[in-house]
Amino acid sequence: MTAIVDLFRTYPQIVIFLSIAIGYSVGRIKFFGFNLGSTAGVLLVALVFGQMEIAVSPLLEAIMFALFIFCIGYKVGPEFFSGIKKEGIKYIILSFFVAIVGLVTAVLLGKLFHFDPGTTAGLLGGAMTQSTILGTAGEAIKNLAITPETKTLLSSDMAVAYAITYVFGTAGLVVFFKLAPYIMRFDLKAESAKIEREMSGSDEEELQPELFLWNKRPGLRVYLVKNPRLLGTFANQIVALFKTEVRINGIKRNDKILDSYLTEKIQQNDLIAVAAKAGEFLQAEEIIGPEVYDKDLEHLIGESLKVCILNKEIIGKTLGELSEHHSSNCFLKALSRQGHEIPLNKNTIVKKCDELDIIGTPKDVETMANYLGYPQRQRNISDLSLIGIGCAIGTLLGLLSFRIGYIPITLGIGGGVLVAGLICGWLRSHHPTFGVITSGAQWLLTDLGLNLFIVCIGLAAAPKALHALQTSGSTLFFAGMILTLTPMVLGIFFGRYILKINPALLLGALTGAGTITAALNAVKEEADSHIPTLGYTVPYAFGNVLLTVWGTVVVYLMQ
Predict the structure, then answer these.
(1) Tens digit of pLDDT for each residue in 242-301?
(2) Taking residues 396-413, what's their average pLDDT?
(3) Which residues neighbour 349 within 8 Å (Cβ) at sequence distance 6 or greater?
(4) CA distance 144 to 171
(5) How far apart are CA 159 and CA 553, in angstroms?
(6) Distances (CA, A) of 418 to 83, 247, 428, 439
(7) Predicted confidence (pLDDT) at residue 148 exceeds the cutoff of 90
(8) Cβ neighbours of residue 326 under 8 Å, at least 6 residues apart?
């Protein structure tokens, strides 16, 4: 055993990798339908390994946190600045309300139970499930005028408090949001359906835009020209012969697909690709000739492409308006905002940096993509220069400070890097060829960056963790329950009766303000709709920023 401990102390990277591997596995284990998640799992494993008193360089902790927080800012930047500029004022107010109630509740609980600044910061981070608080609070603790031993103790208390309160902060809120509709006596499914009817512009069952819609995509079949009456005519003349709505998608002649097929005269044995809805091909063989198989033509309607919305003429318009004027040859598979799918209804408003997944012929898709904004083609390369420069400038920004009374006001390094990420994400939304960070790279830097940071926190805190757990474990868990539920309960009343937000949108907005994606998924399941996601995105952007800043504030308020 001694040899293993010596090995781990000499090569701490082994412990770091094991903490990540085991922690992710522990986080996936389900207890009564819930799982801890990777962050809590990694922290618990690191606290166990840390009993061997393994030292890890503070530099690794600083770098990993910077990468994590930069990518968070990069992701929410467009929605954050869009919200400030002109949209979602009710959601912004709700975000501030939830954040302020959370901070005040944490401070009051800290005073009531005589928690130190580190414990209170960990309580706030775990109960509000916002891991960035550990980073900004940790920086604030390092800047306090106290002994190194006391700083170590506060950091240890912070990690333990976070670990104790995080589980209920996630699982408890999932249960709460499932029960909230019954407690508040509103029908979440009915409220969601009501919004869908309003967004559809009608009370009919069909709620979605007529043309720009994947499930209305026509089939495509190929016919061999044998009717002599068609020779010398044009494609639009053939379309006019049909009693129902069809479209000519392409013509193949002598094994070559014609580029300008609409202006070409039809010749004997041409292959014509006809697009139409099911049941509308009945006249085709009589008008054109026998149906045949041709893999080149039948793949004309099969290209799919995701497009980032940047065109100012589109932003602020509804899907119905887009469908009516610009969608005759393309079809919409999905609409996503901040990685979350939102409803496809006629009155769904398109926002900047929304991602439309469209399908159609290669030519039509390319034309449509160029009109809408920037095509999100698959990339394997991210702009690491942007990440490096952003983290460096953000660190310098975080070093700036000034005083209001006895409290030094500073973003801290975490806050500075977050601001840099917000700005870079916003710039990327205006200049899509600038600063590309692929979705895969964002996930890796965010998830791995956070969990490596958490490993460092856990290993450093572990030697004093058992004592903190024994002395205040039950009290912390109870305080965490209060802190988790208070902002959400008050937020429901504030949002429903003061801000007058529809309950379905309100619950989505509260999960965003608390940055609890797992709870959003629970709300969508209860609503049987994507409607709650419409309320989620703006509060999520503001919640990430506000709660991150609270890490610094809570430490100074608890001195």
Answers:
(1) 877 777 777 888 888 777 777 788 888 888 888 776 666 777 887 888 888 776 665 555
(2) 71
(3) 316, 317, 318
(4) 34
(5) 17
(6) 17, 50, 15, 18
(7) no
(8) 212, 368, 371
Instruction: List strand residue ranges (DSSP E) for 258-368, in order.
Output: 271-276, 291-292, 303-309, 330-337, 340-341, 355-360
Asked if pLDDT for residue 507 goes beyond 80, the answer is: yes
Q: Mean pLDDT, the chain, as a whole number?
A: 80
> Do residues 400 and 417 touch, judged by C-beta distance below 8 A?
no
115: which residues sit within 8 A by CB, 6+ positions away?
109, 123, 157, 161, 472, 479, 558
For 418-444, the pLDDT digits (tens) are: 888 888 888 877 776 677 787 778 888
d(CA 398, CA 387): 16
DSSP 3-state assignment of 99? helix
Q: How far is CA 39 from the centre of its chain?
A: 17
With the CA atoms of 142, 145, 146 and 148 taken in that order, what torsion angle do they form, in degrees rounded to the nearest 10?
Answer: 40
Tokens standing for 6? Answer: 């010596």
Question: Which whole-number Å values give the CA distances from 156 to 9, 69, 138, 302, 532, in the listed order?
Answer: 19, 21, 10, 56, 38
Q: Tokens at residue 219, please?
A: 């089939």
pTM of the predicted structure, to 2 decimals:
0.72
